[in-house]
Design brief:
The complex is a heterodimer. Chain A is 55% helix and 9% strand. By secondary structure, chain A is an alpha/beta fold. An 8-stranded mixed β-sheet of chain A has the order 3-2-4-1-5-6-7-8, sandwiched between helices. Chain B has an 8-stranded mixed β-sheet, with helices on both faces. The interface between A and B is large, with 55 and 50 residues. Chain B: InterPro entries: AAA+_ATPase, P-loop_NTPase, Signal_recog_particl_SRP54_hlx, SR_rcpt_FtsY, SRP/SRP_N, SRP54_GTPase_dom, SRP54_N_sf. Chain B: Belongs to the GTP-binding SRP family. FtsY subfamily. Chain B: Part of the signal recognition particle protein translocation system, which is composed of SRP and FtsY.
Amino acid sequence: MIKGVKQMVFSGLAEKLQETFRRLKGKGRLTEADVDEAMKEVKRALLGADVNFQVVKKFVQRVKERAIGQDILDSLTPGQQVIKIVRDELAALMGGTQSKINVSPKPPTLVMLVGLHGAGKTTSAAKLANTLRKTGRRPLLVAGDVYRPAAIKQLQVLGQQLDVPVFSMGDRQSPVDIARAAVEHAVGTGRDLVIIDTAGRLQIDQEMMDELAAIKAAVHPHEILLVVDAMTGQVAVNVAEAFNSRLGLDGVILTKLDGDARGGAALSMKAVTGCPVKFAGVGEKLDALEPFHPDRMADRILGMGDVLTLIEKAQASFDADQVAKLNQKIKNVEFTLDDFLEQLQEVRKLGPIQQIIGMIPGLGSMKKMKELGDIDDKELVYVEAIIKSMTPWERNRPHEINGSRRRRIARGSGTSVQQVNSVLKQFEQTKKMMRQFSEMGKSMKKGGRVPGNLFTGKGNPLF
Amino acid sequence: MGIFDRLKQSLTRTRQGLVEKIETLVSGHKSIDDDLYEELEEALIQADVGMDTAVDLIADLRREVKARGVREPEQLTSLLQELIGDILGQETVPLNTGGPPAVIMVVGVNGVGKTTTIGKLARYCQSRGQRVLLAAGDTFRAAAIDQLEIWGQRTGITVIKHREGADPAAVAYDALQAARSRGADVLIIDTAGRLHTKSNLMEELKKVGRVLGRELPGAPHEVLLVLDATTGQNAISQAKLFGQATGVTGIVLTKLDGTARGGVIIGIRRELDIPVKFIGIGESVDDLRPFHAGEFVAALFDRRDKETV
């Protein structure tokens, strides 16, 4: 199964590259003309993802040099070969996973968050406190944004939700004094991690940048993190450069990655400042901060989805025994509505449907997203209610559920007969697909490919 | 300082990004050749114009150069300016009227400056002699209601609010009733920031629109999408999806006071034909200006002064 999903990595940019190289099949070596053609697509993909122009230019040059004249491995098509080079280079450029915070040997560890207006500093401060608390830290949040109306209140509310103390001196004190007092407070109350929120500011606003430098000079943070919106365009390099040259950044938090932004800014900033992205904000809830995976980001920037994350999530959520049992049932064509319900619940464990869709390659593209855009987690609640309103007898014999039974089920689950019908239909489709899967499993070993419509289309019973 | 100067000042950085670049390019070339075109295309892309729009603009430029028999590289700037002006349209598009009250709904992704824009917009309407009412429709984000209330205090405008976590459609409903009974001319409704790809949150937004329309046919008369000028190509996706969900009638481009270039509005106007109605060019309450396409382009391409900021 998982091997099959990996095959689907080839979509988006990959599809285009495959197209470009189709006519080259059989050639043993990549020529300059072939590579030039491919690089145009790579360039388009990177710019569309808002990677900085200069970075793209250098990157394409490097990939080109590596690709020309390479022998094509037996196992790969020329298109796949170029994709591999592009991915490897991208991942190399982004660096390894570095979701670690510099911990001070002498507590408290001080973390300072800086960035433009609206990047998500306050929310990230709370999320970071939540994440690091799970590793045994005792965080203190510091309300250092004395400019934006109600910014302090926002941090206080978030702190309350998390049950993490928030240090504030109102909006009449200078942020430098607040930071200094906060550190003393942390020492006094046994807090070993201080997270300082600061006001959003323009990187060209000297006075405001001076203020950050003054905070740094006053408390010497162990970690200064730049918070950047994943949707940021070409200007990301200027921003990162300015903050880095003034403050010396230790890392980046990339926010709002749960949307459809491809986040090329991450690549630009790493290329320009050398600062790794350490964390990614992936949702509105306070636990939606994840360690950043550069290799997966490389795929996302190229429009290849985040298959690995999905696979990992699936592996973590699906019970191996259950899967084995299910496989047996599929083989014997015993798949019932009970199993269907179980399967749905497993899928829900992976997280919100929208988040899952975002990780599947090919669905990132607008057209397909649109088809799936309407999927709502609430629909699954109805499906569950409908199946639970059936008797065990009915669950084992779905094809024998007649009109009057359907009416009763609809009443019992608070839905309509149409909805009951559609669930039964979805079930039949799933069953059919399951059978195809098990047959495909055999052919896969002989190098067969997963049909392209595996995860797409609204009729997909998995969703 | 006149509006034009103020605009020019704040756009100076934008201009430094795009125009000076173009001018350096142009003056460095003795004749119009492929290299020059390519470099112009790059300059546009770096201003967040987007690859497709940039490629098309350059193709148009080539065509015009041929048609008009242009030979001097220096003339390219004004020609390009003309082409961008054509896309943006020269006229100012005013706020839609309606009601009373004229209902304005403000939408956008997280952190683009919706609440701040509303504060400024309220002041703008007020300065034109309109009676304004605000609705605290962001019931999701912590302290968003407080933030709007502070703007209400600054402008002396009443804010209709519910508790945090309340149904935003209910807030909108109450605010509309209040606006009617108090004889307000304009009702501005704040909404929670949301990523345009989250269908359940977009449904919530649709519901707010439906409730307003049911109570006052024609409402909301104006749905303003707030876009952050630092946003890259994702802005097009935002405009598309918010447009589908709420029928966006205008764009407010914020944070144009940085080095952000806002070039993406050219692509948006070209693809979706949603007019930019206001731009945010600073942090003070008066720093919201009606968008003048002509002035925007002129300021963007102004050659006379080269003051640095």
